[in-house]
Amino acid sequence: MPDIRIRDAAQLLGVSDDTVRRWIDTGTLSARKDESGRLVVDGAELAALAVEQARTPQTRMGSASSARNRFPGLVTKVVADTVMAQVEMQCGPFTVVSLMSSEAVRELGLQPGSVAVASVKATTVVVETVRESGV
User: Fold this and answer.
1) Is 97 helix (H, G, I), strand (E, B) or coil?
2) How far is CA 51 from CA 14, 96, 131, in A?
3) Which among 20, 21, 118, 129 is least surrounded, fewest beta carbons within 10 Å?
């Protein structure tokens, strides 16, 4: 399994280095010293923690759907012309941007501060790797 340095683990999880060190101190994450004497965490263990930390928040938005990639959040920006609109949402740590018709924006009543759920459907997802020297 790949070893990940504390700094890189913190960056990947969107937390501070101190938070990762606290998780190590409390046993949430285990760590070891690498051959250079630096503290590292196991990549698989970090991935499991990332999944646990990223659970979608529970909401009372009672719609039923088969879509799995649903992100509840707040509308932060709407830019619309006569035909199309760009809607930006903050969904936990993620920013989601949608292009839709201006008519749909009006019908849904979307404006900054609106609570909504972004449902994502993708036919292609590109995965890239990073250099060994960091994230």
Assistant:
1) strand
2) 13, 19, 22
3) 129
Token digits of residue 106 = 């009006």
Grouping H, G, I as helix, E, B as strand and the rest as coil, residue 12 is helix
Q: What share of the chain is helix, strand, coil (3-state, %, to 5)?
A: 25, 30, 40
Per-residue pLDDT band for 11 (boundaries 50, 70, 90) equals confident
Average pLDDT of the chain to the nearest whole number: 83
Residue 4 buriedness (CB in 10 A; 0-12 / 13-18 / 19+): buried
- pTM of the full predicted structure? 0.52
Please report where in the chains the tokens 């936990």 appear, as a residue. 92
